[in-house]
Amino acid sequence: MEENIEKSSETKYIFIFGGVVSSLGKGIASASLGLLLKQRGYKVTIIKLDPYINVDPGTMNPFQHGEVYVTDDGAETDLDLGHYERFLGYSLSKANNTTAGQVYYTVILKEREGQYLGKTVQVIPHITDEIKRRIAVFDGKFDFVIVEIGGTVGDIESLPFLEAVRQFAIERGFSNALNIILTYVPYIKSAGELKTKPTQHSVKALMEHGIVPDIILCRSETKLSKEVRSKISLFCNVDEESVIDVYDVETIYEVPLVLSKNNLDEIVLRKLGMPENTLDLEEWRTFVRKIKNPQHKVKVALVGKYVRYRDSYKSILEAFVHAGSINNTAVEVELIDSEELSPSNCHEKLKDLDGVLVGPGFGRRGIDGKICAIQYVRENGIPFFGICLGMQCAIIEFARNVCGLKDANSTEFDKKTTHNVIDLMEEQKKIFNKGGTMRLGQYPCKIIPGTLAHSIYNQDIIYERHRHRYEVNNKYRSLLESHGMVMSGLSPDNTLVEMIELKDHPWFIGVQFHPELKSRAVTGAPLFIGFIKAALKHRKMKEHKLEEV
Ligand code: GLN
Known about the structure:
Blueprint: H1 2-8, E1 12-18, H2 26-38, E2 44-50, H3 62-65, E3 69-70, E4 76-77, H4 80-88, E5 97-99, H5 100-112, H6 123-135, E6 144-149, H7 159-172, E7 177-184, E8 187-188, E9 193-194, H8 197-208, E10 215-220, H9 226-236, E11 243-247, H10 255-261, H11 264-271, H12 282-292, E12 296-304, H13 314-326, E13 329-337, H14 346-350, E14 355-358, H15 367-380, E15 384-387, H16 389-401, E16 409-410, E17 420-423, H17 426-433, E18 439-447, H18 452-457, E19 461-468, E20 471-472, H19 477-482, E21 485-490, E22 497-502, E23 508-511, H20 526-548
Parallel strand pairs: 1-6, 1-7, 2-5, 2-6, 7-10, 10-11, 12-13, 12-14, 14-15, 15-23, 16-17
Antiparallel strand pairs: 3-4, 8-9, 17-20, 18-19, 18-21, 21-22, 22-23
Helix pairs in contact: 2-4, 2-10, 5-6, 6-7, 12-13, 13-20, 15-16
Bound molecules: glutamine.
């Protein structure tokens, strides 16, 4: 134990690079290694370095870059941070994601302030120094800092990052830094073989930047044979046991189990001179076993406008996996494009579903379809879950069809509506007109006792994350309430509606925040767990009715 404390006072750095192609799951590999080290009793954090010039992904189209992941402290970050939090089980911060845009922005601001004292400002040393400073922010606070370098080795924009990492390792001493490259070993059908050449080329490209891999993670469709591993070992100059197989598995949550079976965590600890400690993966194994062997099944819809690209709703889809495991239920999620929903086809498209989630989003497009779906599930007692824009649409639908305010709308979609049930707050309008921005990050929410929401959370105050500009207009609160809508969650000063539900419905909940962002593997998120439970109940009731007929 003593030895452990003594050694852990020096933070160890593990750099994870990607070779051959993108989308190999570097984020999952980083998160999995993080979990394994954490489950051996170490303090671990993970940083993502993104070589793109955007300051953050907040302005990027979800079709291109997937979901924007928001942290407690209100940073809009890369979706890989979602994987890190889901695997590690705790919250990260804005310091866990750095982009080239942030690095250049900081350096250019310093230059404008004259802080470089007349020097020529250059990629080396100024940009690389700023990258190194950002890698070192957790120094001494963790035993391990895993640093995932976005993109693929060989990209022009990654160069300053690779150079910074190379310098960082030599400055810290090679015993404190470890390099891992994740590559692809394709199966070529016509030859009937797994091919190692792309891996060899990627490793060579990494070495050209002075970075020598200590471990090679090989993604492949099938397990690597001993021959293939020996070949990679020989030509890439890495000992054979450090050529680690990451074959395709059923669920991403199985990846830590595969990596551990192939001794990744032990090798990492040995190479960094750290005690092995015992590995406790019991809970994780149970969680995975339950995902793979569900006893029940439900089918729910996710209605949104970015459905062509599943990564746009990454956290929601993962929250369903967690909630499914906890309910011993396989959750089949049908993604429905809200633009394709209309009063004439809603019944056909939604009648067999056990629950409908209307997701977050921005802009007018697809709103009518969402409202149509909400009316259908409200009138037919199908469990409904509205997240952010989904809740705002539920309010609009209720105001129009139950309270009789025919042109009720959000001013986001119709500036001139006479019934602006969703609007910017007065305070926000002032900021907004000056280009002001969103409510971002974690805020407290008070849950009203006696509500469905309270029975789900079993807490009086919860903390959830936000990312939106518009709010429920307080002027309409009493009208909505008088027709059966319950404001079940409020900001502690009562000025903002954070959660709604309906009295005469089995399970109808809308939330202004994003509960999916805090759904973690093993423990899940209360609202998703409750929603799947309600969906299961709905299905059982349907089956029961069918049997009776
Ligand atoms: N567009 C809405 C707003 O800004 C909802 C945002 C969201 O769903 N995240 O308030």
